Amino acid sequence: MAPYLVGILNGFAIGFLLFVIAVGLSLVFGMMDVLNLAHGALFLAGAYTAATLAGTPTWGGFLGALAIAALLGLVAGGVLSLLTEPLRRRSHLDQALLTLGIALVVAELLVVVFGDDPLRIVAPPGLDGSAAVFGVVYPTYRLVLIGVGALLALAVYLVVDRTRVGALVRATVADREMVATLGIDNRLVKAAVFAAGSMLATVAGVLGGPLYGANVGLDSTILILALVVIVIGGLGSVRGALAGALVVGQIDTFGRQLLQQVGLGELTSFVLFGALALVLVLRPQGLFGARSVGRAA
Fold first, then answer.
1. I need a labelling partner for 253 at 20 to 30 A (CA). Which of 5, 138, 156, 273 fits?
2. 293 has pLDDT over 70
């Protein structure tokens, strides 16, 4: 059972990291109705921030990378909100083309600045070792990542579902005009959601650095996984993003391990997208997707 336990734990570690990435994309798309294909580039920017400041394993560098990545995410979210505002009444295709163009520009700029060689990111001291879990030796950083991801999931759920801020966001989704009559600028609400979602993406880039490193093409891989997560879980749903992320994490790690043991490791992607197709056929709105975005959380 030891190899299977490692696979399951890896699935949880990847799953909680994918949640941090995907929940921002899910809320922006599901609640603000903006398709942001620059989300993967934001993750990559966070990863390169970690590679720069946490290249040598110190707590100061790692925490500094988290702080700077969070600030970059907030600024980037505000800028993206402004750029997409003129397209609010237009189709998702227009939004996709704009944000995809931004993603390509950001990715190329990162290559110019950091080069195209993969960069390795080491976990901070104390988290770069291993711990025993039910008799199995497992990396400490991945265990901590599971705990941090779970805490972030709880925090995001409480903010969206149990606070006045979350109620304001849901009210803006349900009836923008009514919220505007109360003297609240809808554009500020949208910018706040965009900034929070982008911040989660850049922070996830730092958290995922010791797992994925920083390399060219990582933004596209992460974006695809995040889109699969929100389609399986349901747009605009925090619970859906968590469920979808954990499902994708288990399929991508535990499923890969099982298929490799029987000599079918190349079929992992087919299994992942097969699960996506199955959800789309049986429940098009996703596992926890609301039929009305006004009840998204």
1. 156
2. no
pLDDT greater than 80 at residue 255? no
Cα 145 to its chain centre, rounded Å, is 14
Specify the pTM. Answer: 0.90
> What are the CA-CA distances from residue 149 to residues 146, 195, 201 (Å)?
5, 19, 13
> Rounded to an integer, what distance in angstroms lies between the CA atom of residue 243 and that of residue 15?
9
Residue 133, helix vs strand vs coil: strand
For the chain, list the domains and their CATH numbers: 2-295 (1.10.3470)
Q: Encoding tokens for residue 204?
A: 């996830």
* Tokens read off for 258: 């099982």
- Spatial CB neighbours of 257, under 8 Å, sequence gap ≥ 6: 3, 4, 7
The tokens for 181 are: 């009559």
| Alpha carbon 227 to chain centroid, angstroms | 9
Confidence label for 267 from pLDDT (cuts 50, 70 and 90): confident
Give the span between the Cα atoms of 207 and 142, in whole angstroms.
Answer: 10
pLDDT (tens digit per residue) in 91-143: 888 898 999 999 999 999 999 999 889 998 989 998 988 988 888 889 999 99
The answer to whether the Cα torsion of 269, 273, 275, 278 is positive or negative is negative
Distance of CA 216 to the CA centre of its chain: 18
Q: Coil, helix or strand for 118?
A: coil
Per-residue model confidence (pLDDT) at position 262: 76
